[in-house]
Amino acid sequence: MTIAVSPQGLPALVLNADFRPLSYYPLSLWSWQDAIKAVFLDRVNILAEYDHSVSSPSFSMRLPSVVCLKSYVQPSRHPAFTRFNVFLRDKFECQYCGSPDDLTFDHVIPRRAGGQTTWENVVAACSPCNLRKGGKMPKQAGMFPHQKPYAPTVQDLHNNGRHFPPNFLHESWMDYLYWDVELQP
Questions:
Q1: How far apart are CA 99 and CA 119, in angstroms?
Q2: pLDDT in tens, 75-93
Q3: Lesser CB count within 10 Å: N end or C end of the chain?
Q4: Which positions ≥6 away from 155 have C-beta within 8 Å?
Q5: What pTM, to 2 d.p., does this model score?
Q6: β-pairing, 59-69 with 12-15?
């Protein structure tokens, strides 16, 4: 198959069978190759297409821009504990000073004092705040998180992810997304 534009420039938005994105952040996108493979395996319906096509000597097809799974995928009820998800829960802000820069994560109760690496004890912290707090307890350091750490639901992360739309949103996706943003020309 040949294509006239860069494949990375034409991803397909992937929706669950209920027409909601599988995830908002990161936005559920497939490469054009994966989208076409899913079409041929009869796993998705095409809801919108790009103006660009792929072709071989015996076949031509417009590239899907929005696909919907034919079978509903039950979302996980409990998100994985990852650095990225901690940052997303905390809206990519240091929980001590509010800075979005140079984020790390901090054990509110330090590990040396028995603190665990869990949702309820870890917060996003910028490097300077994390260094300043060091291995001290919050009261010793005089540093308390703006928000008490908690185990988020998938819905919490989806809601937070809507505050951080991707740099590229194709106009054909807008009927399926719920960001309040203007499309760039």
A1: 20
A2: 777 888 999 999 999 999 9
A3: C
A4: none
A5: 0.66
A6: parallel
